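Discussion board: Methods & Data

I've been asked by a reviewer to show the raw model output for two of the constructs in my manuscript, not just the figures. I'm not sure how much to include, so I'm pasting the format here to get opinions. Each protein appears as its amino acid sequence followed by a line of discrete structure tokens. Is this the kind of thing reviewers expect to see in a supplement, or should I convert it first? Here is construct A:
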Amino acid sequence: VVAKRVKRVLRVHLTPAFIRNMDIFKMPRGARVLVARHGVRRALKGMSLAHSSVASTVATSPFAHRRKRVRDTSWTRASLPSRNLTASPIRSATRLSEDSRSDTLARLSLGFSGTLNTRMLRTRHGVSPRMSANDDGRPSFEEMDPEHARLLPGETSVTKNKIPVDWRATGTAFVFPAIGGLLFGWDIGVTSGALANLTSPVTSGTDWYSLDPFQTGLVVSASLAGALTASAAAAVSLGDKLGSKRELQLAAALYFLGATSQGLAPSLEGLVAGRFAYGLGIGFAMHAAPMYLSETAPSSVRGLLISLKEGFIVGGILLGYLGSYAIVGQEGGWRTLLSSSSLVAAALAVGMATLPDSPRWIAQKGGSEEEVRTALQRVRGRSAVGDAFDQEVRAMVAQSGAGTTGGVAELFQKRNLRPLYVGLSVVLFQQITGQPSVLYYAEQVFEAAGYDSDQGAGVSVILGLFKLIMTGFAVKYVDTLGRRPLLLGGVGVMTLATAVLGACSATLAAGDAANAPITATASVVAVFMYVGAYQVSFGPIAWLLVGEIFPQRVRSAAVGAATLTNFGSNFVVSLYLPTIINTFGQAGTYYLFSSMGGVALLSIYLTVVETKGKTLEEIEEQMTR
């Protein structure tokens, strides 16, 4: 009898599991009296298992709080004569772990009746006729944020990474550091076009246009030398002293100085100096941008944003190719091409001035919890609310070891060796698995397939567009598929592609005229396979892991070491690639890179952990235990 009266009053099938997973109901007064007088167990005695299955759905269905007509039940402790029932509210109970949920069929049902819904809607902001006098009006569903619902003690929210992202604030904190990568890509894209324009007696506009091979190499490598110098300085101490925000501002100033100097260069020495200054900007930007993005982005979209930064680099390369195409035949066009990035550098400087310091850097330097909270709120916007946000702020302050930082020497302590190996190995394998060789010979591969040799810029634009598309694929799926699957799959395809290119090169070198067309076509397919696989694996994810896996105390030094490794290995491979090809032949070189791809696959499988959806503090705990 009591159970029927409770059901009739509440219009919902109550179960013990349901009661355990909610605070004291702001029940209609009659139901509170019944439960208080007879006890929950007795009131529910006699209910069938079928009723239990349906009723538990109300508490456990992940869709229950989304029902538009079901009111929020943010229960207060209404006064009860003799019972003290304590648990989480219904909406919080919808966030319980999977093992406490009922079967799938049961979740499809809801225990609320239309009568109860109507009654609730009628008493939206007032006091229900069936509420006691000391019950306040309840907020409606639309007025409540489900992320504010308290969990059961000891429970962990399964939706902590589903807090809505304020894209206006998060996007602003992303786009300006990413511009640092865009300017790096621009330099890659314009170098060959500017050099061709500079060394032509028709378009140079100078009397020092006739450059010997050493002078040409000096112009090309000056920016790389600057990047290496800046990376070393950032790794030793400068990056940690400045913080990623000020380091990006320094990079913007060097970008502007370098671009302006190149455009106004009166001599070869002036051009080389401008290239070196621009390279310093590249080094500081590539050190600071991954750090700033990883330390400010919400964990649910951190992979997307850092991978999208790679998209900015590829976009800059593509814009550089287009710019090189635009100045063909234009006298002094190299000056316009090399100096035009100064406007973008100015935009980077202005944009970074509007952003706060990294909240984790503030905590590292001994900032108060309130300072950390304010900085994080500025880059997170409206999503910077709720218990999850508060816990993240407290974790930043607790794990930063306020006022203490570690230098390069501390990287070799036992707890840091694992993340150090992972970070350095991925950027090293990024360079020694064939990227320079494949891109260097891409034009020859297209020519063998019948492509017009006079349209070399067209080959570059085609590959640039394809790289941009495949980077978009990585950006879309890096936070759903994860880092490890993309890395393993992408590197596997790269390894296969370089083996195919080796076989095709050997066939073409043997002079097999009958199979030459098929072999040439297979080479083109292999080039696209390699480029596409690189852009969904090493391209974006190497830098993503570099920004994620290092402990906060040594992050600046570690990212500097990774950046230095990347540029240093790039320099060494570029320097010795002609010698390697001369020694092993083109086919042998491809086979060598394929074997390095196999080593990279094994290393990634054994050492790289999955980091999607985790905060930097959680990753640090996982990597250093």
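Construct B, same format:
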Amino acid sequence: ELNFTKAYENFEMAATYGSPTAQGYMAFMLDNGKGVPVNHAQALLYYSFAAAGGDLFAIQVLGNKYRVGDGVAADCHVAVDYFSQASTAVIEDESSVTQLPEPTPRLAHEYLTGRNIEEEEEDVIEYYRYHAGAGDPQAQGVIGQLYYQGGHGVEQDFELAHHYLGQAAQAGNAEAMGHLAVLHAQGLGVEQDNATAVKLYQQAIEKAESPLALTNLGIMHLEGQGVPKDPAKAFQLIERAAKKNNIDGQYNLAVLYYNGWGTPLNLKKARELFTKAGSQGHVVAIYHLAYMHLYGMAGVSASCPAALRLMKRVAERGQMSDLMYDAHDSYTDGFVDDALIRYEMASEMGFEIAQSNAAWLYDMMGDTLSTEHFAPLMHAFRRTHPEATEEEALLYARRTRALRFLYAASQQHSVEAHLRLGDYYYYGYGPLKVDHVIAASYYRRASEMRNAQATFNLGYMHEHGEGLAKDFFLAKRYYDQSAAMNPDATVPVQLMLIAWLAHYIYEKGVPFEWILEADWGLSAARLPEWTPPAWLATVQWDSVVIVFLSGLLAVLFLIRQRLH
């Protein structure tokens, strides 16, 4: 059973023995009011103790706090110092560098689409396993690489990787030959053997000019492993791989230019190649670029903000990103409280998807969460609203907690956060008061990021003059843009345009000039002005429109049923 008070007591006891991990957990609980009253100053103190002890969680949290000014004055250079420590830890951990992270699901997207990425991956992997067993060299190569790298639900297993890659290589699969050579060169799942590795690399190059083989054989020539040391030969091979837009080829060619190995030193070329590799997600290339921007090297102007953005990207590829995957595993297994805590911790480190997911869990799944998450907020709400029910207090607390993470995600340009913050201000959710002007500003930012719902909302607000100037024609433009952004919005927009036309006729009169000029090109001046009778003002038009649209949808449903 969840018990934050007990957890804090245990962490506090461990912290007295100098545990940086326990100090980091205490800081997190103090910062978020879990089991103890919120105390940001004390949280900052414990984060500092934990970071001084080398706790990566605390280091990254402090980096993020100084990045955005959360409880401290924003300071780019202090933030860079912390993220430099976190990113260096990633570079020193080879497992973090050699494999790019899998995409972390957005819970809101999974919920709306009904998709489960993990289940889909399992189906794909089973497909390849079946065909690999049937002797398909392509499938054997894919499964072999999965076992070599690990991830996507497959546990790393070098012996199985060698088995499948060996089968694919015997069938002539050049990429499999290259990966099999890596296993022999590094002694993974098989005895280390440079001679066999060189032979396999050469076969892969002859077979299909494999970029992997070109790069790795070039590195062997650079270091003199199994072949004579020859930097010039290394440069020639790696350059061929880079010209094929290979990420490792680009990175290693940048290293050669940066150090002047096998070619004259050329920092500008090195920067260009680091940039190309970094744009494809090469972690070490991004790391080098960060320092180039920090110190103004290779023709780049010194820029702390640019260096900080790059270092943050590197830091988010390390061990601490495991929190994100563990959180999603807990969520899919039904342990929503555990998932929330992990997403909250990742949020403090600056992971935007974690911030969005934590907000969504509070906002949409609050009924399934333990009240331990909300107890202090609920008590505070009841003190100021003694007449409030338990459900009202819980809803207030849920939305107040969600708001913290929505603000954080919006600062990192999350379209979902901007849309939801627009809703919060539009309806006055949680501690917020209704403010249509601020709501419109958030909707506008989400619309600029091509969000159909936010664009639709702007149309509605222009139509009714809520927070924006009342303008029927601008409203229609937004409705049309919404349908253009997302084909799924076409039917709702068409129905809304019917209501929009009825609203226009009620307020402005029948647009005879549109009808006449469109059909016959006649002047509307020959027609009398139409003034709505007084009794129309007493009609609840929102209710009329809802009844009309509901009836229309019912008819469409019956027609669809008949067609099927």
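Answer (T.O., handling editor elsewhere):
This is acceptable in a supplement if you add a one-line summary per construct. For B, something like: The radius of gyration is 30 Å.
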